[in-house]
Amino acid sequence: MPDPVTINAAIAANVRGQRAHRGMTLDELAARSNVSRGMLIQIEQGRTNPSVNTLCRIADGLGVTVGRLVEVADTPVVRVVHASEVVAFEHAGGGSARLLVGTDAPAILELWDWRLGPGEHHDGDAHPAGTREMLTVLEGELTLGVYGRSHVVGTDEAVVFSADRPHRYANEGRGPLRFIMVVTEPGERLDD
């Protein structure tokens, strides 16, 4: 995996480049992403290490994947992502979310490998309208919270849900939890 300095430099260049490509000002991106102008400046200058939620909001505001924002190299026609290039977001409880690969054309699509320790959870922000998430549990038991309801998904089970509302992934069990998740957003923004 690339070192944090390299990843932050890539994020800075990619956010700046994606924003410029769309002709957006910092204020416009701040309004679309619900990330402050000051934070965007820090990110574009490589002076901060943004959280997963902040990157998700910026990606949503730009209409690209998180994968596009953390990419260290240009994307060729065929892209093999080697283990050393996978970007991992570590959680304080020992878990992690690894973005294995992502694309942004013709639709936004991301493939994630999540691990949560016992008692650990992650609260996901609402994605743009029409976003769906599909996941399968490889180990343990996931308690998925969507729209105020909890759904238990066991090992070798799968679930699909509308992710355009806040949601929570939780490990309420005693052992480790691992799941693979695909996030897909429409290619054209439904709210534009």
Number of helices: 5
Distance between the termini: 36 Å
Alpha-beta content class:
alpha+beta
Strand order of the largest sheet: 1-2-3-10-5-8
Low-confidence stretches: none
Inertia-based shape? globular
Task: Return the average pLDDT rounded to an integer.
Answer: 86
Q: What percent of residues adopt helix (DSSP H or I)? A: 25-40%
Strand content: 25-35%
Radius of gyration: 16 Å
Q: From N to C, what is the helix and strand string?
A: HHHHHEEEEEEEEEE
Q: Can you walk through the features of this model?
A:
This protein is of the alpha+beta class and 192 residues long. The model has no long low-confidence stretch (mean pLDDT 86). It starts with a helix and ends in a 7-residue tail after the last strand. The chain contains 5 helices and 10 strands; from the N terminus they run H-H-H-H-H-E-E-E-E-E-E-E-E-E-E. Helices cover 26% and strands 33% of the residues. The strands form 2 sheets. The chain has a 6-stranded antiparallel beta sheet with strand order 1-2-3-10-5-8. Strands 4-9-6-7 form a 4-stranded antiparallel beta sheet, with no helix packed on it. Helix 2 crosses helix 4. The longest helix is centred in the N-terminal third of the chain and has 18 residues, at 4-21.
